Amino acid sequence: MLCERNKVVMNQEQLIDQCANKDTCGFFLKILIVLAVILITAVTCGKIVRAETPSLKISILFNNVSYKENLKTSWGFSCLIEGMDQTILFDTGGDGNILLSNMRQMGIDPGVVEVVVLSHIHADHIGGLESFLEKDPNVVVCLPESFPATFKQAVRNRGAKVEEIHEPKYLFEGVYTTGEMGDWIKEQSLVLTTSKGLVIITGCAHPGVVNIVRKARGHFKADVYMVMGGFHLLSMSDSEIQKIIHMLKELGVQKVAPSHCTGDLARTMFRKTWGNDFIESGIGAVIELSRQVGKSTLLDKN
Question: Do both 126 and 21 map to the same domain?
Fold first, then answer.
């Protein structure tokens, strides 16, 4: 709704003039009328309405895919998720100095992070964790149960708490994990509920991006709005990529934001297929959505 400020001001003046012509309308009543008009103006301008549709922002902090020229690219992936009940750092890239430098360039204080979610054990996704914890150890690190005990203890030694993930799990309002997937490389993906459906964030999608989407869609009984992150299609042929595109389309994926290990060929094919629903997600990209309002009931919270 657009604010018709001139109309509001005119109505305000008319009300005051009308009031001034009546003996029963005194000075204090004029003030009350003005205050009432100001309140109506604030509501119609959306200052109150916006609070009913909280925004969700996903910022790409680490990526080998370029986007913002002032930020440094490097092999790996990390993104910051703001607007949920807690601020999440998903993966930490492969180099802590680059991660922290990009955060500074983007005006992001590491101290805002409350939860770190690690997708899998590979260095290009956990390599920045040590440097990050030096800046902000007061976090909960949610990692696959299969991570080495020595890694978990090292995280605790830095002052952070560790939460081990095996099965699909409710983390907090609107945020879930698929749990560990895959036979060889165990990997978890993050699932967010938004007003338009699920947003699935993958690290490298080693278990297969189609398998991840199929599990999330079936387990959480909801449509998939967007899939983003690494899709692990770098070494695949045109025909193999086309099959994956076809299956994701059949699963009803509305938007895609592939990067990292997806590969240039696959990204080009995804862009051609999804058109305007292909979302740029290189280093420094910011994706804004509307989070789901009200309680979600995708999983038992216990």
Answer: no
Q: Which residues contact 299 (CB under 8 A, 6 or more apart)?
A: 168, 169, 170, 176, 219, 220
Per residue of the chain (302 residues), give pLDDT as tens: 334 434 444 444 454 454 445 454 455 455 444 445 444 444 334 333 333 456 899 999 999 999 999 999 999 999 999 999 999 999 999 999 999 999 999 999 999 999 999 999 999 999 999 999 999 999 999 999 999 999 999 999 999 999 999 999 999 999 999 999 999 999 999 999 999 999 999 999 999 999 999 999 998 889 999 999 999 999 999 999 999 999 999 999 999 999 999 999 999 999 999 999 999 999 999 999 987 754 444 554 44
Write down the pTM of the prediction.
Answer: 0.81
Domain that holds residue 24: 5-49
Q: Are residues 60 and 107 in the same domain?
A: yes
